[in-house]
Records
---
Amino acid sequence: MTLMNPSPALSTTPGPGREIELRGAVRFPLSIPVNLYTEGGEVAAVTVNISASGILFQLPEPLALRSPVSFTIKMPAEAMGTASDVVVHCAGRIVRSGRNDGGAYAAAVIDKYYFRH
Amino acid sequence: MDAFKDALKSELPDELPAEPAQAPEATTGTGTEKAEIRVVLADSQAIYRVGIRKIFALEDDIRVIAQVETLAGLHAAVERFPTDLVLLEGSLIAGTTDAIPELVRRAPRVKIIVQSAHTDESNTVELYRRGVRGIIPRSISPDLLVKCVRKIAGGETWIDNQSVNWVIEAYRSQASALTSPRSQPRLSPKELAIITCITQGKRNKEIAYQLGTTEQVIKNYLRKVYDKLGVSDRLELALYCLHHQLHKKAAAGSGSPAPEIVAAVNGKH
């Protein structure tokens, strides 16, 4: 992001560590096992948080940036008040990925989704 | 490129230009050209359109592919021509709520800059929330405008310090309201029933038929539920339900759906 001082009209680009990320949708801290379908095949992952526009996973290895990914989120029927689990198919692309203490993380933007019923 | 710059020297029509759409020309390897940023100017004032076009004409990597003076013209332009960025006059969308989402829906990959004479907190927050990548004043300098276009085309967001504070504060308030277990609004049995249908993936028409009402009534309920819960779409609604265990709590408390509504919802399953 480029921060622009209103007066004088100069722009500064924040350096490492000062980067501010703004996201439009609220993230719900939900831990749900998912299977990711990536260019390299199927990968087992667990969600860290999910929003209407993106999702953060914990997984064994990082994924390639901008690579397409699809996955299905299964929401238990008991929690959703439905007769059967609510299943949402999502497709998007990886926007961030790297290693962390638990293995690796990957963040994806959800480009489209649909509910299966 | 030279032919195009020659064309720019003459007055272009206000609506769609005569030049045909061209495929993206980014190339890799030696002797390559910088990828062009294809811009549509949407401004009701001709003097701004002409002025901005002249500014961009000096830049090899920015190309104005269309200029329009109405929202309808803008919709037609982004659907007709491969567009990277829209520079949109704020007054064209003043008083509307769906202008930006509609534009994003028609051209999901286009990045939007809104040029506005006046900014206030709620308008700024809402614009960024709905997908705008930058908000700039009408008085912006040419150099800064070019820099802004390049940054946004490169994937960044352009935002001034004051707007950063507004947006972060709005995000904090919303996050707190949505994720806090204490601040859950009360939902009526019918609202809960409709939420159940939505999270089952049913369309509004289907829900209306099942509940014995009209599609418009369902849309009204849905709008009310979205506003009550502070969510923006079906997925966010489902996530909210899951996070807050909405139906579990409703069943345990006094908010259980009325039997006839439950029967209507589950009737066809």
---
Amino acid sequence: MVQLLAFVITLSLPSFVLADSSTQLSSLAPELERILSRGELIVGMHKEDSPPFFMQNRDNTLSGLDVELAYEISRSLGVSISFLRDAETFDEVVDMVKEGRADIAISSLSQTPKRALFVSFTKPYVELHQALLLNRLKASRYQVDIGQEASRTEEENDFAGYEWLTTSHIDIGTIAGSSYIDFAHRDYPKAQVVPFDSFSDAAASLLVGRLDAVLYDDAFVKSWTTHNTQEILFVRPLVISNRRDPIAIAVHWNERQLLSWLNTELEALESNGTLKKLKAYYLESEDWRED
Amino acid sequence: MKLSFCYFQKFCLHPLTLVLATASGICLGLLQPTIAAGLQSIGTAYISLLQMCVMPLLISAVLLSVGRMLQAGMSGRKLSALVVTIVVGLGSVALIASVCALIAEPGRSLDQQDQMLIGSQILEHESHSSDERSPSKFTGPQVIPENVFRAVSEGHNLPVLFFCIVMGIALGSLSSQSSEPVLAFVEATYNAMLKLIHWLMYALPLGLFCLFSAQVSKLGGGVLLALIDFVCLALFVCMLLMTIYIGIIWIKTRQSLLTVIIALKHSIIISLGTSSSMAAMPSTIEAMSDNLGFDRETANLVIPLGFTINPQGNVAVFSLMLVFMLQLYNIPIHPADVLSILVLSVLSGVAASTAPGIAGLTMLAIAFKPFNLPVDIGIFLLSAIDPVIDPLFTAVNVTGNAATTALVSPRSSAQRS
């Protein structure tokens, strides 16, 4: 273990070191050997852009939090990188790793028990929260009276003032093949879950009143509301701060060494402040939009 | 010395002085907003002085008028005439406002840019308000006070009025010997309050200058500009209603139109400057009884009562807002809905005026709930345009109640000729 650590640290130096390490290569775990001898890391990603995690620029390069994280990882391994973006849903991204078509998946993937049956997850590198986009007109139908609201206690309530979300038979839209289908079923048991191919389709349906709410992660919802302020009169964004959505990297269940190495790498990026910088830039500010 | 003081008094009360003070206040607010904002404290002090007199005046006016009316053998017919006038009056206000809004369709005139602007303001407002807890919400109009002194100190006008009416009836039904000392005391208080307010009128130019400049300096662009169509419609409805009311007074008083307007000048200017119909109450009572010759007892009862249960301005704003929101959210308005709109506007408008201070806006829920309109958006939009809307509709309240007095008042001695 300590040997591997030392080896990894050495690897962050220029990669020509690799040229005469052929003897050391064979003492690596098979998955790492595969990647290093290929000289390329294949990163599985969703086909559609998902700002601010991964988006395609005008000059056809990729940018985003996940993209930069992927580059850090490939740099650390001393290999080049290629992004495999076949997957049409997030569940398909997980399949790519499960079937070995991609080495790892960095695609704002939610760590869920269901997925963990088939792949292994690193520790989360970003923690998002569930967020809803509510149709204001429909919400008014369920909202408690103003007089009653005043008597509500101050205690921390997941859905303070919005209890009707969990108790009424509402229509909640979310993205097909994403972890949010499961979240929706789990957290809103009385609701009808309607899958959509894209967030904009779901939002369009919400705006015409066919849905009561759209459920997704807060990064995406915030991004959408910033781009669509003209609809705020009609929809309301609501972050459920007690419902966490941990985002992690997925690897094949059998590739324990790769998983271990990734966790170590994430730990290192955390302690040298890289992760913090990435999060501040992409998640807490809007500066990345201008670039 | 006495002569120059006399000239000073005349100067302070002259309509031209008031216009000049208002105009220069507005100019200062537009050109030097920072200085103008600093004058807010003087303006607030002036309003506080006026409002200080309101509660004692209200109590003494109502006690006196009900007590005296009962002594003079006033019949219940008069009271029912008043109630009918109020109901019909409010209903017609709601009708006029709704019809104007239905024709003008302000809710459909918001373009993409307006919506974006309003949207971003709402986002900001909602992200801040999640941190603060609202203060004790107004739970709806109460009529009967458990503790009248607490009602007085908390500024709940309706319970206080209820108590005064009941007390006035009780006093009036006592024998002259028992009730006269009390009524005399009440009358002296009443006259003292009027005198106090009369003195405060000399400071009116200064007060107006400070108030208008501070108000104008606070006018931001943003939501106000986005809703400019609605604001213009509100202004039009306001002018229309005031014209009707002044017309009613004119017909009833049989004096020249100019006399009527000059008599009401103080009331209107104070309501525009302070956005407080209560602050304009004393001058309205004076105007109707002294200047225009209506029965003082009627004025003493109808005007304080009317500012609470006959708020034409509130009803007009709420019905405009209701129609606006229905149009904005594309909710179809069937002919049958118009009746609900009228009734709901009247109910919510009256409920709002019984609330102390700004809590009244939450009464919008009464009108919005049946249509499932988002109440918080309505309150947000109204609060945003409040600096312009509030003065206007306070003036409508004031002139409207003056008109109600004119309609209900018997011919007083000045008119019997």
